[in-house]
Design a protein that fits this description.
This protein has 217 residues and is an alpha/beta fold. The chain is 59% helix and 12% strand.
Length: 217
């Protein structure tokens, strides 16, 4: 069983991944955040610095590298949880391309590299995740959760437009462009798995129910 946890920045992917890992007794492959040297630069640099240093493109390459390593390990061994996965990387790269933070040439290079990596995954013992747990929520909830977790480089008011553009297209991307596995949607306006144990148990029940349906097919 391979589960991937996806969704908008700030909605609690790591907390849900931890919850699932503990519940199913599986290893969790975490998103490369705390040990990521480019992420703070991506969030805090001026537009002039971004234009010169190409931080958005470098960040996407960093995530692509670390997520490819994670999903290869996860697909070799059964029973794993991925805190975000390589499948969502394309969406983040596309949004940054739409915003002009990644050039068309950089995006084309990225797209070819990702396609090459995805072809290699088809050669592994397991081909794809069993289920994506997609966390969705209102934009107000996204901003509130980002503020609550308090990563200083994420709190600049100028980032709100970037967060909004990501948020506005996320549901459509998952429902129309993600085809690697089935999806269960968790409404994070309703659930707080960190502060309320009953919410955590209900989320686990939703995932268990979806997995039972998949196994019956």
């Amino acid at each position: 069983m391979l589960l991937v946890v996806g969704g908008m920045i700030g909605l609690g992917k790591t907390s849900v991944a931890e919850l699932l890992g503990e519940h199913f007794g599986t290893e969790v492959f975490y998103e490369s955040v705390d040990n990521n040297p480019i992420l703070p630069l991506f969030y805090t640099s001026s537009e002039e610095e971004i234009e010169k240093k190409r931080y958005p493109f470098l960040l996407q390459l960093h995530f692509l590298d670390t997520r490819f390593r994670s999903i290869k390990s996860a697909l070799y061994h059964d029973n794993n949880v991925l805190d975000r996965s390589i499948y969502e990387d394309w969406y983040f790269a596309k949004v940054n391309n739409d915003l002009g933070r990644i050039s068309d040439l950089e995006f084309q290079m990225y797209d070819r590299l990702l396609d090459n990596m995805m072809q290699e995954l088809k050669e592994l013992p397991k081909k794809a995740p069993d289920l994506m747990i997609y966390l969705k929520g209102s934009f107000e909830t996204v901003l509130s959760r980002i503020m609550k977790r308090g990563r200083s480089y994420e709190l600049d008011a100028q980032l709100e437009a970037y967060y909004r553009q990501l948020w506005e297209g996320y549901d459509e991307w998952v429902m129309s462009h993600y085809h690697a596995s089935e999806v269960v949607v968790i409404d994070m306006d309703r659930y707080d798995v960190v502060s309320r144990r009953e919410d955590a148990l209900e989320v686990l029940a939703l995932v268990e129910s979806k997995l039972k349906m998949i196994r019956k097919k």
